Structures are given as C-alpha cells and as structure tokens.
UniProtKB/TrEMBL annotation, chains A, B:
Chain intervals with Low complexity compositional bias: 1-13
Name the record gives this protein: TetR family transcriptional regulator
A molecular function GO annotation: DNA-binding transcription factor activity
DNA-binding region positions on the chain: 56-75
UniProt keyword terms in alphabetical order: DNA-binding, Transcription, Transcription regulation
Gene3D superfamilies: Homeodomain-like, Tetracycline Repressor, domain 2
Organism in which the protein naturally occurs: Actinopolyspora mortivallis
Stored InterPro entries: DNA-bd_HTH_TetR-type_CS, Homeodomain-like_sf, HTH-type_TetR-like_transc_reg, HTH_TetR, MftR_C
Ranges where the HTH tetR-type domain occurs: 33-93
Superkingdom to which the source organism belongs: Bacteria
Pfam families attached to this UniProt entry: TetR_C_14, TetR_N
DNA sequence: CAGTTTTGTGCAGTCACTGCAAAAAGACAG
DNA sequence: CTGTCTTTTTGCAGTGACTGCACAAAACTG
C-alpha cells in the first residue's frame, strides 16, 4: 500500500512528535497530551514554589507520577517547560503571515500575527506561572531563547514569502527580529504595569514606537 | 593598617575578578591574563576544529595545559569563551552613552556606542573564530545570550541617565533592545556578504532602516 | 486473540559544574 | 634569603542534567 498517507510508518516516533496522521480521539493521543501537560504543570508549579534551581527533574517526575526518563521524551531540557509557544504556533506563524492582506506593511503583518500568537499563549493554563518564573529568574531566558528564535525564523520566512524576497534579505530579517524584540519588551512592560493594563495595548504602543523610527517621545 | 588601599584584603578573590587595585605590571596579573587567554584560544580553536559538542572541558584544559578545575575559575560555562565582549566593554557602555552629545537622539547614541564596542570586539584575536563558531552552531547562542542582555542592560541604563528617565521606561527599553537586535542582524548580514563589505556599513544601514520606521524599501 | 506500533521505564554511562581544602606560587617586609 | 601573607591552582568527591539502549507495558489493528 504505497499510496497510504504514511509512506514510512516503520520509523519509531518519539512521544513528543505528534505524528501528522494520528487521530485526535485515540487513547494514545489523549494520554500523551495528558502526560505532557502533567509534566509541564508540575514543573512550572514547583519552579514557582521553590525556585527552578532547587527543583530536580526527579522532583518534577515524582510530582507528575512518571519515570524520570520519560521527562526527556517530552522536553529536551528541564527549562523547556517554560516555553510559552505551542510547537504548532511556531509552525503556523509563517503561513499566517502569508495570508495577511497583501497591501499590509510587513511590520503590521508581524504585529498582527504575533498578537494572535500571544493570545494563544495567554490562553494556556500555565502562561501566568511561566511568565512569573521567567520574570523572577532572568537567567532562565538562556534556555528559552531558542524557541523565540524559532518563532522569529518562521516569522521571517512568512515575511519573505509575502514580499517575494528571501529569508536572508536584510530588511526582512530586521523586521522579524525587531518584531520579536518588540514582543519581548511589550510583555516586560506589561508585567510591570497596572493590573488592568491590556497586553494588546502594550504591544500596539511598542510597535507604534517602532513605526515612528524610535524617535524620542515628546516632552510636555 | 586600616588606611591601606584595600580595606578588606582578607576576602579570597577568584582569579576571574581582576581586583580593582591590582597593579598591571605584576607577575600574577600577567599570568592570569595569559591563562585566561590560553583557555579561550584553546577552546575556540578546538570548537572550530571538531565542533563544540565533541570538545570537553578536559580537552580544552589539556590543550591549554592547566587543570580542568581551573577552567571554571575563569569561565562559568564551557561556551562562555564565545562571548565577544570584554567584561570591561559591558561595564563601560552606560558611561559611554552618557558622554555622547546631549542633543543626539538616543538611537544614534546607541549606534555610536555599539559601533565602538564592535570595533573593540573585532580587534580581539579570537573574534573571527568566535563568530564562525556561532554562525555554524546557532544552538550555542543560548549560552551567549546572557552577555548580550548584560550589554543591553548597560546600554539602557546609559540611555536612561542621558534622557533623565528610568531604566524601566518603555521607550528607553525598546531603544536599547532594538539597538542590540540591530547589532545582531548587522553582524549576521555582514557575515553573509561579500568579503570587502565593511561591518560598520552594515550597522549603519541597519540602524537607518530602524530610523525609517522599518518601512518597506522602495522597489525600482 | 495474535501481531504490530507506540510509549514508558530501568540502567549504565558521560560530562558540565560546584564546594572544599590543601598545595603551589607570587608578593612583600625585614 | 627567609618567613609570612595573599592569591591562584589543583585534586577530590559529589550532584544532577541528559543520552543511548534494550526491554516491558500499553494501545491499536485485523
């Protein structure tokens, strides 16, 4: 049956890579998601409680009731549980950019797509604790930065396709990188602002400054 | 002798922190610099030859002819040898920003200061190999990102003092973060450009795009 | 139920990194 | 030169992240 959807189903897949053709209703799928979520929730909770340094992978797994070895079937490092983006979000980003209106400026497309990504992230159950842990332990950014770069790459690829250039084009690269930077600064600003401040507004304001060429704000 | 230059000379200092009052001519000072340099040169060279993954701290120390334990007296992680900034550069940055002309726009001050920092880094003997290793092994950026954040912090602090605001001010933060991003993109672009391209020009062009609000370039 | 595929687990091993205490070596006064 | 103080190097023992491998357990399929 060479015409099957899976040309090479023989390859052993790791639990983390949800095979494309796996039906969402299966028990395996549900268990996999449950395990991943349990590990992430346990880890983030313990990080928040005792500080990331004091928490070992063994602790996390004890709390999630799985074997220590299993942790690394789902996350490549202890701190990866702090990544706010679903793998799917990163993958989708380039496509979302492409399907923005063609007359829209690249920076605006980036803002729109990253805004959606942020909404998705914030709807996750662990978002708040993730953000707090990262705020209180800036060293951990090291371990999370790779996922931001992945998001940036996807963003840049989308922008390149949309503007019919290459992902190596300096302009497109700068827009992508600056957009991610704006995202980071917006979140940081938002975290320190009044509780009723909306993240969407912080993001808008930050991108607005970028559009104004980072000129100094007016004094009154 | 409480009147000495060192009020508390009893504290045990680690070799990495060059005590403020140490005379530059002393044999200790020279040996310390030599050891640090030997370790860095050995590490970067071996990284370039066999790939960072295949090189252990033990290998590095064997090549530099010091004990493995000594490595961690100078660097906090194996990959820290790839940081292009001298610790001094990071420290000086805020001051350099402050001493820029007062009428200069913040983004321009940042460009000027980062340009100098880049010149300093490029004058180092290991710069080229550092850059190549980082280009060929993007995963390692994780371990270097902290030093970029430190540079960013120093930059932001200088900008805040210069514009008489606080380092938490969203505008100042964004300018600092964007400037570092521009630096990164400029270096990346430069690495892929023709060999006669000047890094200074890439930097100028990148900042120029930022000043133009990241508007799309004109089509001809 | 029997066979296949995927997921969980145990085990052994490598290696980065740390604290501690003692050895080695430079600095300095007399 | 000698003894003393300070700084740097080193050895040692330990923790814990992470990996490869082989096998057990569980889920899917017919």
């Amino acid at each position: 049956m060479a015409g099957s959807a899976h040309p090479a189903p023989t390859a052993t897949e790791h639990p983390a890579d949800t095979g494309v053709g796996t039906r969402p209703g299966g028990l395996r799928e549900r268990k996999k998601r449950a395990t991943r979520q349990a590990l992430q929730r346990s880890a983030v909770t313990l990080f928040r409680e005792h500080g990331p340094n004091a928490v070992t992978v063994e602790d996390i797994c004890a709390h999630a009731e799985v074997s220590p070895r299993t942790f690394f079937n789902y996350f490549t490092s202890k701190e990866e549980v702090l990544v706010p983006w679903a793998p799917e979000t990163i993958t989708n980003t380039s496509g979302r950019v492409v399907s923005r209106p063609s007359e829209e400026a690249p920076l605006d497309s980036a803002q729109a797509v990253l805004g959606e990504a942020l909404d998705t992230a914030m709807s996750g159950e662990v978002w708040r604790d993730q953000a707090l842990v990262l705020r209180d332990h800036p060293e951990l950014i090291e371990r999370v930065v790779t996922s931001f770069r992945a998001l940036e790459s996807s963003l840049v690829e989308g922008l390149a396709r949309k503007t019919d250039t290459s992902p190596e084009d300096p302009y497109v690269r700068l827009v992508g990188a600056s957009a991610i930077t704006a995202l980071r600064v917006a979140v940081q600003t938002w975290q320190e602002s009044e509780p009723d401040e909306r993240l969407r507004d912080c993001l808008e304001e930050t991108f607005e400054r970028l559009r104004h060429g980072l000129r100094p704000p007016h004094r009154h």
